[in-house]
Amino acid sequence: MVGEVVRSLFLKRRLGGGMPIVWTFSVLACLAVDSFYFPARPTFPDERRFLASAAYWLSDGGFVSNGGKAWEMPLPSMIFAALRWLVGGDDVREIYAIRCFQGVQIVLQSWLALHITRSLCGDDRAARLAGAIVAFYPFFLFYQGLALSETLFDTALLAFFAMLLVWRRRGCRIGGALIGVMILGGIATYARATLTILPPLLPVVVAWSKKCSTRHSLMVLLIGATVYAGMLSPWWIRNFLLFDAFVPFATSSSSVLYLGNNPANLHGDSDWSRDAEQDVVEQINAMPQELDRQAAYAQRAKKFMMEYPEKTIERSLNKIRRFWSIIPNADGYSTGIFSIISAISFGPVLILSIIGIFVNRHIWRKILPIYALIAYFTVIHALTVGSLRYRLPLEPFLIVLAAITATRFLPKPRSGDGSM
Questions:
Q1: In this structure, is residue 256 part of a structural domain?
Q2: d(Cα 394, Cα 391) in Å, to the nearest integer?
Q3: Which residue ranges of the chain lie beneath pLDDT 50?
Q4: How deeply is 47 buried, as exposed, middle or buried, from its count of CB atoms within 10 A (0-12, 13-18, 19+)?
């Protein structure tokens, strides 16, 4: 059953329209960015954290990140450790191995976006347009050159969604396709904890949009949640053995909640050196136990949110503004060439996506899971911290919506012109 589903997703449609050429040049663009723009060393502090975690994993056999044993999800560091081992433990070769691995993922993301678009609208022109944009989207080319979790998470999320549409096309039946959806949802969560409980809920949204019965939707939720829990159970068991407590996802979530909700954060920004109470951070970080630090950050954030609801709402609105900003928010990237590239790439995608809410009403039931995903990410980052970087997982889906909208304004193709 699962093999049949995979074949239907990956092998059924004949590629055309020059996409192999697009993907070849996409790989070349990634290589150019990796070789000529980025130096042969980490660029961002978060890269050093992932690389240090990978090195520690090889030397010690355990997972530690930023001084915590469950500070973030383990999959990126696990893969980086495997790549480091393959290249003999050399720091420079490891960085280039990661970049090559992530450059290939851009092609996979393009291919997944192509198939997602075609599943939603049946228009081969829109599918090829979405695939081509993803292949050369500046933000994707930029982040694939960084040793971060972004590219891996985006790929896993797209694969999860592509399988979700396969399951929808097969009638939302309880079987191998649903299991495949939840396996991919679990993999995405191992890449980053942002999804939390969303993977079992999205199939319910799809079942509802397909007009399935309430009983069937509840069975979908039950089976989906069971498989998802099974996928995460190794992480849960490992954490229980380490902490003697249930730690379902990542302990860093509390510190991120605090960063976005504390008296020093006046505008909803996300700079630890400026937007956090330094004495409080120093005091909490001095606590020896990871779960104690997590609880202290959570308590401090909740206290602020309860005592200052007006300020919390004001900051949340600022975070939404930052999250959906057309130009980068970070110092050094908010002006000049970076702001121009961002505006001319994300700007049209955002505008067309908004227009698509109206012009694509006839397929709103198919698109509904994307809207749910967008709403979920917006709410999560309105509560925690808002930044362009955290919007990145949504951008392949916005590109899909933009491509569908754009082709609605094009003349209808002659018979046979849109074949894939």
A1: no
A2: 6
A3: 1-15, 418-420
A4: middle
